[in-house]
Specification:
The complex is a heterodimer of chains A (290) and B (400). Chain A is mainly beta and 290 residues long. Helix content of chain A is 6%, strand content 60%. The chains are: A mainly beta (290), B alpha/beta (400).
């Protein structure tokens, strides 16, 4: 219990690091996409007895056009034998320059053994997307008296689905987010839309003596296609070191993780533009009780 | 806890890392800071390089070419810029022709990228069809014909490739252009070249916009220092409102050149709008100019925020509209020196009507201006423009 409390407190502390600003994204772009696979795909939440994770992204060097507050994602899962699967509850705080989204979600995931070492995982998640819109923060509307001081709050439902195939040490997974594509309109203008997004993950963990070498590919389609290729190396599950190349935004990412105590792991990640000087950080904490 | 402190320390160290940047010059803007002779091309050698078109009829002299660096300004601050100067081997008194190149994508690994910046020319045969296309076929040929030719790289290319290129920002680029002319005049003096003190300027596409912007800037601020005889502009985005409205007025229509319009919007945001948060313009993350160029769709409606498009279309985004108008080079002045316009009527990148309207606008205000229209497009009419431009410049150069 103390460990859980420690994680929650640490996560809150990280989320409140206000001097950091983070990069605005249409969809949160976590470097640690394997650790946060459940965010992109409800079938990929932890199947442990119970688990909890907290992750936050923040900016280390930015241009004015990318300033915003840190994103925060928290998730808790609980295995329920009677339901033959896992219940998952999550929260996302995702602020932009003129609106803030709070996603509160509940999901269910289950897995079927199709034969020895081969599993199919299925997951679904329902969300409430609470969007707090501040049109007068739009520079293009700043001088428009119709929007002066105007605030708009809209709550819309949303839904994610996911499927994954696990075989030996490999994973193939596909998730669909924002099936209901929540949209916020006002005075004939469309201000916010969460477009339906697709995520594909292909990963394999190759054991080599004390090491595990893990190549992975993460493909996402939000407004555009993006490809992340990652190679990571773990030493006896104690330390993990990895690097990622992102196309077409041409970014390099690196991450380092360690298991602090049994079940408790911490990762830090860093990403840097090849064509720009924008740099971001990420901190991830997870506790898993198998 | 120690591990947590360690990772936080690591983040702090990484945050402190910064890419190196060239030292900003302290010399006044327009000062020639260095030059280096790169090579010599005989008529036969130049002719062998120009495989795409027969330029031989215009060649008269062997040429020497030099890379130069000079001081200029960028976002109001000093910056070191580079360019190319090409000098014909003749003892005749010569005039200066400054050539402004068109779009070079801000990535060296792609064809048509910034590896083709004029200052990077080493006299090599083209490895790709478009390698140093404008330098080989236009700049070197104009020099071989008998002009001292200067070709600025612009900010964001050459020695300044660490900064964002102010793509199609015609006023900002005109400042760089004038400084290159001033630096070239110092080069001419230092090399003891015979100089007629006649200045001609020309350019293609983005370069045509810079060329007309330079004409305006010289007329307004440098008329005592620079004896501008004429400008010759081949299909530029002079009327920037008309240029960007080409996509904003037709948001549901796909255009394969949306990438360059999107890059122009990125530059407009960076240089005029005061870096408006990207999520107030685009529907996808745009962190650099390549993000803008690699637009995920050919339809504006897919990449721009719907409210942004609506506000631009209705004109209710006053800041945006004023920024666009501030980047126009076709209004607010009437050229004193002759202005030549050239355009392909089938131009598929910059609407041909922009050139026609700009020409008509100047003509109606009494400017000395001439319009040449050709049946080709943005690319295929280039040699019609170039041969006509040389003829126009020659005729003015021979006047007493």
């Amino acid at each position: 219990m103390k460990k859980l409390l420690y994680i929650i407190l640490a996560g809150c502390a990280v989320g409140l690091l206000n001097p950091f600003k983070t990069v605005a994204q249409v969809e949160p772009d976590f470097t640690l996409y394997r650790q946060l696979a459940g965010f992109y795909n409800p079938a990929m939440v932890s199947m442990a007895k119970h688990s909890i994770l907290v992750s936050t992204t923040f900016s280390l060097n930015n241009k004015g056009m990318y300033m915003k507050n840190p994103q925060l994602y928290a998730s808790a899962s609980l295995r329920v034998k009677k339901l033959f699967g896992v219940l998952n509850f999550s929260y996302l705080y995702d602020p932009y320059s003129y609106f803030t989204q709070n996603y509160i979600s509940a999901g269910y995931s289950t897995m079927f053994k199709i034969r020895e070492h081969h599993w199919i995982l299925l997951g679904a998640r329902l969300s409430l997307a609470a969007t707090y819109l501040e049109p007068d923060k739009l520079i293009g509307l700043a001088s428009n008296p119709d929007y002066s001081g105007k605030k708009i709050m809209k709550i819309k439902p949303d839904m994610d689905l996911g499927i994954a195939y696990k075989f030996y040490d490999g994973t193939l997974a596909m998730g669909i987010k924002h099936l209901l594509s929540p949209t916020v309109n006002s005075e004939g203008l469309t201000f916010v839309t969460n477009p339906t997004a697709f995520f594909i993950l292909a990963a394999y963990d190759i054991p080599a003596k004390s090491l595990t070498i893990s190549p992975s590919l993460f493909i996402s389609k939000t407004i555009r296609w993006a490809y992340q290729g990652t190679l990571s190396v773990s030493y006896k599950s104690y330390v993990t070191l990895g690097g990622t190349l992102v196309y077409p935004s041409m970014r390099t990412k690196g991450f380092l993780g360690t298991r602090v105590v049994k079940g408790l792991s911490i990762f830090i990640a860093y990403d840097s533009g090849i064509l720009d000087e924008i740099r971001n950080g990420e901190i991830f904490l997870q506790y898993v009780n198998r | 806890m120690k591990k947590l402190l360690f990772v936080l320390f690591l983040i702090a160290v990484l945050a402190g890392c910064k890419k190196s940047e060239p030292t900003a010059p302290t010399a006044p803007r327009g000062t020639l800071l260095s030059f280096e002779k790169v090579g010599t091309l005989t008529i036969e050698e130049l002719n062998a390089l120009d495989t795409e078109h027969d330029m031989r009829p215009l060649m008269e002299y062997t040429i020497d070419y030099y890379t130069v660096t000079y001081s200029s300004i960028y976002k109001g601050n000093p910056i070191l810029l580079s360019g190319l100067i090409i000098v014909p081997q003749t003892s005749d008194s010569l005039s200066l022709l400054q050539y402004h190149h068109g779009t070079l994508l801000p990535e060296s690994s792609i064809e048509g990228g910034i590896q083709n910046a004029p200052s990077k020319f080493k006299g090599e045969a083209p490895t790709k069809v478009k390698s140093f296309y404008e330098v080989r076929l236009l700049c070197c040929v104009a020099a071989s014909h008998g002009y001292i030719v200067s070709a600025p790289d612009y900010a964001g290319l050459g020695v300044s490739d660490n900064v964002s290129h102010p793509y199609t920002m015609q006023q900002e680029l005109a400042e760089n252009s004038v400084d290159m002319i001033l630096a070239t005049k110092q080069f001419i003096q230092q090399q003891n070249l015979l100089y007629k003190d006649n200045l001609f300027i020309t350019g293609w596409s983005e370069g045509a916009g810079v060329c007309l912007g330079t004409h305006k800037l010289i007329q307004e601020e440098y008329s005592q220092d620079l004896n501008l005889k004429a400008s010759a502009n081949y299909t530029g985005p002079y009327d920037y409102l008309q240029f960007v409205n080409y996509i904003f007025d037709n948001p549901n229509t796909g255009t394969k050149f949306l990438a360059i319009y999107n890059w122009a919007c990125y530059a407009l945001n960076e240089f005029y709008l005061g870096s408006r948060p990207y999520d107030q313009i685009w529907r996808y993350p745009v962190m650099n100019s390549m993000d803008a160029i690699l637009a995920p769709s050919q339809k504006p409606v897919d990449i721009f925020q719907p409210f942004f498009l609506q506000m631009v279309q209705t004109g209710s985004d006053a800041t945006m509209r004023n920024s666009i108008l501030a980047n126009c080079t076709n209004t607010g002045w009437v050229p004193d020196a002759p202005v030549f316009f050239y355009v392909g009527v089938a131009d598929q990148i910059i609407p041909h009507q922009i050139t026609v309207d700009t020409y008509n606008g100047f003509k109606s205000q009494g400017a000395s201006t001439t319009l040449y229209e050709y049946p080709g497009n943005h690319f295929t009419a280039v040699f019609d423009y170039f041969f006509q431009m040389i003829q126009n410049v020659d005729s003015l150069d021979q006047l007493p």
